[in-house]
Automatic annotation (TrEMBL):
Residues 27-121 form the YdhG-like domain. Gene3D superfamilies: 3.90.1150.200. InterPro entries: YdhG-like. This is YdhG-like domain-containing protein.
Length: 128
């Protein structure tokens, strides 16, 4: 896959291709959270950055969706500034800015709490 920092059209196709290419639980998980992000923020912009990282933005980065051998990592660019009453953040907790959610095979995410987190991140970007 090519490296580009394009928005929506090409990026969406590249994300589709990544999901298909993974062909396992990681692809299913990435597709699921992508759907939740699109439902939470219908006008979200999909981007493809840093040599193959799906990025969802609205007025700034909401989160990225990286896939590794044992986790799908959803990194929220300004996660440390977001309320997380459900305790979804379970990774990158030591920094002052980012926070992440690591999802492992067989784990599910609280869709309602995740959507609230995505909406809060978009709102924070819009408040600047």
């Amino acid at each position: 896959m090519k490296d580009c920092s394009t928005t929506t059209g090409d990026a969406s196709r590249l994300i589709d291709a990544r999901i298909a290419e993974l062909g396992d639980w990681r692809g299913q998980t990435l597709a699921h959270v992508r759907g939740l992000i699109r439902q939470a923020v219908p006008d979200v912009v999909e981007e493809w950055k840093w040599r193959g990282v799906p990025v969802w933005s609205q007025g700034g980065i909401i989160c990225t969706g990286e896939t590794y051998k044992s986790v799908v990592k959803l990194t929220f660019a300004k996660g440390a500034s977001l309320p997380d009453p459900s305790g979804l953040f379970n990774s990158s907790l030591e920094g002052n800015t980012r926070r992440a959610i690591d999802l492992r095979e067989g784990e599910d995410i609280d869709a309602e709490a995740f959507a609230a987190l995505v909406r809060a991140a978009a709102a924070l970007n819009g408040a600047r």
